[in-house]
Amino acid sequence: MEKLGIAITGSGSAVPKTSLTNQGLTQLVETSDEWIATRTGIRQRRLALPTESLSSLATVASNQAIAAAGIAATDLDLILLATSTPDDLFGTACQIQAELGATKAVAFDLTAACSGFVFGLVTAAQYIKTGVYENVLLIGADILSRWVDWQDRRTCVLFGDGAGAVVLQANASDRLLGFCLKSDGTQNHCLNLAYTPSPQELLPEVNITKGTYQPITMNGKEVYRFAVQKVPEIIDKALFQAHLTVDQIDWLLLHQANQRILDAVSQRLNIPEHKVISNLANYGNTSAASIPLALDEAVRQGKIKPNQVIAASGFGAGLTWGAAIFKWGR
Length: 330
Known about the structure:
fatty acid biosynthesis, acyltransferase, alpha+beta, single chain, five-stranded mixed sheet
């Protein structure tokens, strides 16, 4: 029998050891633990040391996911890395492929900021459903501390570093029940990590630009408004596609951006608090890593059990947003 469904069979995660508390941030910018905690729900975040790389964090998370799925790295056909902060602008997935020893796997990066993991999940599923690949490793990893302005108190309190990974495998029954993805480039200016050019004359009348990327800039109010409006809508659309109702969701797994967004979205959907997965108090906003990091933690704590229905939604720069409804495990 042809296996043209997918199952998510293993998860893993990794965070740097170094912790920065809200108290620590008060030494960098004018803020307070109470101010940060009441507005964001964040108490601390993990920061990668100069010796730590995106590929090293991602490799640890990936090895855990591969082991949990009960396969070997050499069984992998595809490695997808969702990130906005690669170690190498040409891509980091291939470095991870080498570190894992996944000799058979094709590997590439995918960038959709904080929506990256959900976009990656849907992308990975298509390769399996079309019969092209059987075993896919999907990683969401970001080191945003590299790109934060530590003098900008609107953004520096939010972000942290981490990696999460899952293994998707071909399965007789399809465990990805429904999904919906959206983009709106007209709102791109709300959240940026933009390239800033510096003109340089190579020869008379031949000008190029040399520059660098500037720290993250964000219009917090607009991003909050966007998330609270669009996320419940897209979860509804994905549920409709899955032929499910809100009360059939076991867990709501949102991108861990801000506790106020998590609260507002769950209230709009009438999902009780005990069904909402939240770990941002300890890690902050880890961008593409946030959903798989929270997923892996909940699985390892025994909260998420096989066959339970998870509604996952990512949202962020682009602007991009998406939702995927899936059953955990085979």
